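The records we work with from here on pair a chain with its fold. These numbers are not coordinates but entries in a learned vocabulary of local backbone shapes. To see the layout at work, look at the sequence and tokens printed below.

. . .
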Amino acid sequence: MLLFFFLGLMVILFESLSLLMILVNLELLVVSLFMIMNIKFYENSFVEIITFLVFSVLEALLGLVSLVIKIMVMGNDLVILNDIL
């Protein structure tokens, strides 16, 4: 499960050429954090469901904000960020 976390983090930091790649790797981070919370709070399933929902909503909001910023900067909604980098 820590492999998912580090894999998602490293790809976001070093190979983030498109917005879709960033969102997929953020999903890996959310799944790994959910697994970590599942192991830590395995007796209380309510806490793990709430944390998974919070992380999922935050990941979706981060993707939406980054897409809006991309549209404001470039003027189009293409997903590839090569022009900005």
Notes: Residues 45-74 form the longest helix (30 residues). The chain has one domain: 2-74. The helical segments are 2-14, 19-40, 45-74. The mean pLDDT is 69.
